[in-house]
């Protein structure tokens, strides 16, 4: 081992028991290591949780929404079978399903709630959405044309105090013109199922009915509101939407999930970037503690530096000694933080419920947040980025004290020795 590394390691340990100053310097070194480790671990955990939020949010939204949606003018699309056939010619399109989208009031006794009504073909809907896998009561294929069954979100069913087998009155906004005036269109539906996506927005407002029942209720005839598409690669949705815009002929409006839910994902990405900057400041503060540690070491070891210089050590060698010491603090702190952060990020689903049971409250209440469980998605690139930035900051923090050590004048340092 080169003597620069050997001396740098010796200074890091500071084993001189006769000097309380050396023990204090060693304590400062340990504090710097702990600060870097804590910052790195916190940064890895927070980035993993933000990745988990983004992934979970995308999965839950696309479990109800569609990758690409084709709608007609005035929310009415005629000849939807031809549109489906044309859209499925695109190599990215795996499945397509028609839908009717409308609004209504749902009433049970004296309880009234606003709702978004979606008319679907159950066998086709199962190919473009995952609602069927989120059923907590009943089945999606329980919707039969002409039987006027309805499937409610869990929060919507709870607010209406209705269970499977119960009946709800649907009040459509389009009225009936009679000699007595304009009367609302009413129809009783039987609850045949309840779903729970896990997103309060959908669970509290969405209701599913059969496509034929929706067409009859809203007087659409054979028309629908639009067609929903599922893609082989959801990240190609914007390109597919552009392709369909040029290939489909007619008065259509084509949108993809990146536009219809852009605010959600943009907010998560911005928050992730801001949290990265804020938490990286913790690492920076801990890294620059290395500056104070090395300055104290340089001041304490001036006589040693002077002796090394008189023995032929070059200023570059002196710099290497203290760079090794500071870099070792950064490396140990970074590696410790990576191990702790990775372990914690992989076990968030265990740690968070344990903390909730101790503190006696839930961190993510479903009435407030879209996602009620704290997800985690550890990504290798995030870990490598955090480690690289931490090591670079630690290395930069060693440059000034090391340069200062290399400028020590042996004659001045040994004058009073």
What is the strand arrangement across the widest sheet? Answer: 2-3-8-5-7-6
Counted beta strands = 10
Characterize the quaternary organization of these chains: single chain
Low-confidence stretches: 16-20
Word description of this protein:
With 417 residues, the chain is α+β, with helices and mostly antiparallel strands. It has two domains: 3-60 and 264-413, no CATH class; 66-257, no CATH class. Helices cover 54% and strands 20% of the residues. It contains 15 helices and ten strands. The protein has helices spanning 3-13, 20-64, 80-87, 122-128, 154-160, 200-203, 211-217, 237-247, 257-260, 262-300, 302-310, 315-346, 348-359, 380-406, 410-413, and strands at residues 68-72, 93-108, 111-120, 135-138, 149-153, 167-178, 181-195, 206-210, 226-231, 252-256. A six-stranded mixed β-barrel has the order 2-3-8-5-7-6, surrounded by four helices. Strand 2 and strand 3 (111-120) form a beta hairpin. The longest helix is centred in the first third of the chain and has 45 residues, at 20-64. 38% of the residues are buried.
Question: Which properties best describe this structure?
Answer:
single chain, alpha+beta, elongated, six-stranded mixed β-barrel, about 425 residues, about 20% strand, about 55% helix
């Amino acid at each position: 081992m080169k003597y620069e590394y050997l001396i740098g390691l010796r200074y890091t340990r500071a084993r001189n028991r006769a000097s309380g100053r050396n023990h204090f310097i060693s304590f400062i070194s340990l504090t710097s290591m702990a600060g870097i480790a804590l910052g790195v671990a916190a940064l890895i955990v927070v980035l993993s949780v933000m990745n988990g939020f983004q992934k979970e949010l995308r999965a839950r939204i696309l479990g109800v929404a569609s990758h690409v949606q084709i709608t007609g003018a005035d929310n009415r699309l005629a000849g939807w079978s031809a549109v489906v056939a044309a859209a499925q010619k695109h190599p990215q399109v795996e499945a397509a399903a028609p839908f009717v989208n409308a609004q209504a009031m749902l009433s049970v006794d004296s309880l009234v709630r606003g709702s978004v009504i979606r008319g679907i073909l159950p066998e086709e809907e199962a190919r473009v959405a995952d609602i069927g896998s989120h059923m907590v009561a009943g089945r999606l294929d329980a919707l039969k044309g002409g039987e006027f069954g309805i499937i409610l979100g869990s929060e919507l069913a709870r607010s209406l105090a209705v269970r499977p087998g119960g009946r709800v009155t649907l009040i459509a906004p389009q009225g009936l013109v009679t000699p007595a005036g304009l009367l609302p269109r009413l129809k009783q539906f039987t609850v045949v199922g309840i779903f729970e996506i896990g997103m309060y927005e959908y669970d509290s407002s969405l209701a599913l009915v059969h496509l034929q029942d929706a067409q009859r209720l809203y007087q659409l005839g054979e028309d629908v509101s639009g067609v929903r598409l599922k893609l082989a690669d959801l990240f190609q949705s914007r390109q597919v939407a552009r392709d369909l815009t040029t290939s489909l002929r007619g008065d259509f409006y084509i949108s993809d999930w990146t536009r219809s839910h852009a605010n959600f994902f943009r907010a998560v990405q911005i928050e992730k970037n801001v949290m990265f900057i804020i938490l990286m400041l913790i690492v920076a503060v801990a890294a620059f503690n290395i500056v104070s540690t090395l300055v104290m070491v340089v001041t304490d070891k001036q006589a040693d530096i002077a002796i090394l210089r008189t023995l032929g050590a070059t200023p570059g060698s002196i710099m290497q000694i203290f760079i090794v010491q500071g870099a070792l603090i950064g490396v140990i702190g970074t590696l410790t933080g990576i191990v702790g952060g990775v372990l914690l990020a992989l076990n968030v689903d265990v740690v968070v419920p344990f903390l909730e049971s101790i503190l006696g409250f839930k961190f993510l209440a479903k009435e407030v947040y879209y996602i009620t469980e704290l997800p985690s998605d550890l990504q290798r690139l995030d870990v490598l980025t955090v480690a690289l930035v931490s090591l670079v900051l630690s290395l930069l923090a060693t440059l000034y004290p090391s340069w200062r050590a290399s400028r020590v004048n042996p004659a001045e340092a040994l004058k009073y020795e």
